[in-house]
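Sample pair:
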Amino acid sequence: MHKIRNLRGSFVDQARFMGAFLRRPVSVGALSPSSRWLARAMVEDCALSTAEVVVELGPGTGAFTREILAEIGKQTTFFAVELSPLFTRSLRRRYPTLIVYNDSAERLLDYLARHEKTAVNHIFCGLPWASLPLDVQERVFDAIVGALAPGGTFCTFGYLHARRLPNAIRFRQRLEGHFSEVACSTPVWRNFPPAFIYRCRK
């Protein structure tokens, strides 16, 4: 029965994701949600149970959200920022305790101040970077770097097949221009399409 519920949930997530992509392909940027294998790889070795503040940007259907909620400590402040009203409503139904703001990631610092926090330990990101205009990318990066605590980590991902494309190369250069350390994971082959993780440190 549990397996049936998981399959049903996966199908619903896929349908929502596809619908959102067809309505707003630039904002969504992918045809399918991230897999649980990619989600688990994103949060591993982050010591979320001892983090004071954790933020997720662009959670979509909540693949990463589920793993983050399972790992954070009882005292951890955690909230998400999601631009899509459809995904925001879905996240609120699925995770009633989750604080999710329907807004642009550019306003991260405003929401951090709302929680009376000055810095974030870990930021997880599912934003469709390749689809974002360069000026928006720059503003989001400025907000992320401005919000991270010294030594804090920023985790995002890219698709393996697109790694050598000009946009992907420029994105890697942008990461290296904003962070003191940029590490790239081994491929997560069980994701569709196969993906890899950028783990960056301020």
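Helices lie at 2-23, 25-28, 36-43, 63-71, 85-94, 108-114, 134-147, 166-178.
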